[in-house]
């Protein structure tokens, strides 16, 4: 089934008559009208931060950026009766036992958790976590909104409920793009990457694999039609690739359900998704059949999307922080779940 899904997704990606307009959005009209409503009304209540023994509460740049921006924003309310959602801050290093205790204290000291069994609550967890036999952890994992860093580990992300944070990576605007394209595709694998596919790509004359990551990355991006990513590997530079008009090609052997801003973006209009089973030759065949007109639209959509994937020290309208808040706003209507039964 996964192979069929990827094939259909690839066909949607390079079939030129799917959508005639160049847009990265699932629905631009809905997005921007709802965005304004969100700015006017959305409120979040933040529970007290549990004490930490050392360091900061969040260890990744994305988490820290989101948390800092949230604290400074007008979305925060000190009156929980006004809140649409409730944020539970806790460090990623918190043990399962202590996390269960934290949720138990929230359940006992505040009236909000039991109204929806946590379905109107959200939390940050960079890698996500498995549920356990403790009812508090089960309700947190299954009901509350988890915000993780992209990409997440398989099985630790629940589609349509959870959200991923775009990577934090500085990039320049498309004005510096070089129109001389020397490579069909460029790949910058991390130092830990090793696979038969990478070795095949290295030997293929139309692909460029950077042997010393970070050495000439920007130059190779601007000289390539496509930028190749192994899903789960180093994907922090994907937004920069899009900004520099290099269409992302995500190589994966299973459906991807944790792409950033999946409630907002039509990723099949900006990126190609292809299985590794065909090797370098199969990858080239997929890329060769993408018509020039379709390729140009994908580049334009990718550039347009980068403003929503960019993090700013001071949040700007429609940037990554606001798009994460927007996805939370879409989830503000909660469903009461059946009570968890002790085993």
From TrEMBL:
Subcellular location: Golgi apparatus membrane
Signal sequence range: 1-20
Record's keyword annotation contains Metal-binding: no
Xref: InterPro entries: Exostosin, Exostosin_GT47
UniProt keyword annotations, A-Z: Glycosyltransferase, Golgi apparatus, Signal, Signal-anchor, Transferase, Transmembrane
Record's keyword annotation contains Cytoplasm: no
Main location per the UniProt record: Golgi
Organism of origin: Lactuca saligna (Willowleaf lettuce)
GO molecular function annotation: glycosyltransferase activity
GO cellular component, one term: Golgi membrane
One Pfam family from the record: Exostosin_GT47
Segments crossing the lipid bilayer: none
Domain Exostosin GT47 per the UniProt entry, residue ranges: 40-276
The protein's name in its UniProt record: Exostosin GT47 domain-containing protein
Entry similarity comment: Belongs to the glycosyltransferase 47 family.
Membrane topology term: Single-pass type II membrane protein
């Amino acid at each position: 089934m996964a192979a069929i899904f990827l094939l259909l997704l690839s066909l949607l990606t390079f079939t030129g008559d799917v959508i005639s307009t160049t847009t990265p959005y699932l629905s631009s009209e809905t997005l921007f009208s709802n965005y304004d409503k969100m700015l006017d009304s959305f409120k979040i209540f933040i529970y007290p931060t549990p004490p930490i023994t050392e360091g900061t509460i969040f260890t990744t740049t994305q988490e820290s950026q989101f948390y800092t921006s949230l604290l400074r924003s007008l979305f925060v309310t000190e009156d929980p009766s006004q809140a649409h959602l409730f944020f539970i801050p806790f460090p990623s290093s918190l043990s399962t036992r202590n996390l269960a205790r934290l949720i138990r204290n929230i359940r006992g000291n505040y009236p909000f958790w039991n109204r929806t069994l946590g379905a109107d609550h959200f939390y940050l967890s960079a890698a996500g976590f498995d549920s356990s036999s403790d009812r508090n952890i089960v309700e947190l994992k299954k009901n509350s909104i988890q915000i993780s860093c992209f990409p997440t580990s398989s099985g630790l992300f629940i589609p349509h409920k959870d959200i991923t944070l775009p990577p934090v990576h500085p990039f320049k605007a498309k004005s510096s793009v070089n129109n001389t394209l020397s490579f069909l595709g460029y790949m910058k694998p991390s130092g830990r990457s090793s696979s038969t596919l990478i070795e095949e790509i290295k030997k293929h004359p139309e692909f460029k694999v950077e042997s010393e990551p970070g050495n000439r990355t920007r130059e190779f991006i601007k000289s390539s039609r496509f930028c190749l990513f192994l899903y789960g590997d180093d994907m922090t530079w994907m937004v920069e690739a899009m900004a520099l008009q290099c269409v992302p090609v995500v190589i994966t052997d299973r459906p991807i359900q944790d792409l950033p801003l999946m409630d907002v973006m039509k990723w099949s209009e900006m990126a190609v998704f292809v299985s590794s089973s065909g090797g370098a030759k199969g990858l080239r065949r997929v890329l060769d059949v993408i018509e020039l007109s379709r390729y140009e639209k994908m580049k334009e959509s990718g550039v347009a999307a980068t403003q929503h994937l960019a993090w700013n020290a001071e949040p700007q309208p429609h940037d990554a922080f606001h798009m994460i808040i927007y996805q939370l706003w879409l989830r503000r209507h909660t469903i009461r779940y059946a009570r968890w039964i002790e085993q």
